[in-house]
Amino acid sequence: MSIPRLFELTVVVGLAFGSPAALAAPPLPGSIPDEQLSDYRDRFKVGMDRYNAGAVSEAIGYWEPIYRQLGPQTGYRLAYNLGIAYGHLSDATRAAERLQAFLDEVDARRSQGQALGAVVAKEEAEAHDRMADLMATKGRIRIPVADPSVTVQVDASEPRAAGFVAWVEPGEHTVTFEPQAATSETRVVQAHAGELVDVQPPAPPAAPPPVGPPSALPSATLPLIAIESTTPKPQAKAASERRPPFSPLVLATSAGLDLAVTIVAIVLDSQAMRLRGDLIGAEGSSGISPSDHQRFDTERTWAYAAIGGAAALGAVTAALGSWYVFGSSKHESLIQPGVGLERGGASASALAHF
Question: Which CATH fold would you assign to the domain 138-202?
Answer without folding.
Answer: Immunoglobulin-like (2.60.40)
